[in-house]
Write a structure and sequence with these properties.
Length: 196
C-alpha cells in the first residue's frame, strides 16, 4: 500500500482507532480475508479529510473517536466479498461493489467506520457492521423510526457520525450507515491506480 502512495491513517491521526473486520473472522465471510493487512490505508488527501472529520467529532463530542472497520481494500478481496455475499445477483451491488467495475475502497478512497465512546465501545447504530438490509439504509431511517425498528438514540448516534463525516466532505452511502466515499469512483479511477 505504501509503495502505491497510500498512507497509514493512524500516522496522520493517532486518535483514530482501527479494527479491520476483514482481517478477523468477525465479518460476513467468517474468514480472515486480509491476512497480514492489519492497518487502515487511504490516499493522502482522503486521510487528511478523515483527520478533519475526526477533529470535528472530538470537538462536538469530547471522548468520542472514529473507529475504522475497513479502508483501502485490494480488488482481489472485492471478488471474495462479491462471491461470498448471499443475496440475489441483482441486489449484490447495493451491498458490495461489482469487482469488475471496482469499489471506491479499491482505490483507497472509501472508508467503513463507526464512532467509539470514552471506553472504546462502538455506539449502538441499530445494526452491526455489514448488516445487509433496510434497517441499515440511511435512506430508510424515517420509515424504520416510524415502524419502531430504529430508536431515536440509534438514529442520533448515526447522525453523530454523519455530521462529522459530511462536514469534512465525505459522501454517505444510501444503503450502509458505515460507508463513506471521499470522492466519486470516476474521480478515484482517474486520479489513482487500482489496488490489485
Ligand atoms: C462490503 C461493504 N463493507 C462495502 O464496503 N460495500 C461497498 C458498497 C463496496 O463494496 O464498495
Ligand atoms: Zn464500504
Amino acid at each position: 500500500m505504501i509503495k502505491q502512495g497510500l498512507v497509514n491513517v493512524q500516522t496522520v491521526d493517532s486518535t483514530i482507532a482501527v479494527e479491520l473486520k476483514y482481517s478477523t473472522t468477525d465479518n460476513f465471510v467468517k474468514k480472515d480475508v486480509y491476512g497480514d493487512l492489519e492497518n487502515a490505508y487511504l490516499q493522502p488527501d482522503i486521510a487528511k479529510k478523515l483527520a478533519k472529520a475526526s477533529a470535528s467529532l472530538r470537538k462536538a463530542h469530547p471522548g468520542y473517536r472514529l473507529l475504522i472497520y475497513d479502508a483501502a481494500r485490494p480488488n482481489s478481496v472485492q471478488y471474495i466479498l462479491w462471491d461470498a455475499l448471499d443475496v440475489p445477483l441483482r441486489q449484490k451491488p447495493q451491498y458490495v461493489a461489482d469487482p469488475k467495475i471496482g469499489s471506491i475502497h479499491n482505490f483507497g478512497c472509501a472508508v467503513d467506520l463507526t464512532v467509539a465512546n470514552e471506553k472504546g465501545a462502538p455506539l449502538d447504530m441499530g445494526t452491526p457492521y455489514d448488516f445487509f438490509g433496510p434497517l441499515a439504509y440511511p435512506r430508510m431511517e424515517s420509515q424504520m423510526l416510524a415502524q419502531g425498528k430504529l430508536s431515536r438514540k440509534q438514529l442520533a448516534n448515526r447522525q453523530i457520525l454523519r455530521q462529522a463525516m459530511t462536514q469534512a466532505g465525505f459522501r454517505q452511502n444510501t444503503t450502509e450507515w458505515w460507508h463513506y466515499d471521499g470522492m466519486s469512483r470516476n474521480s478515484a479511477r482517474a486520479k489513482y491506480g487500482m489496488i490489485k
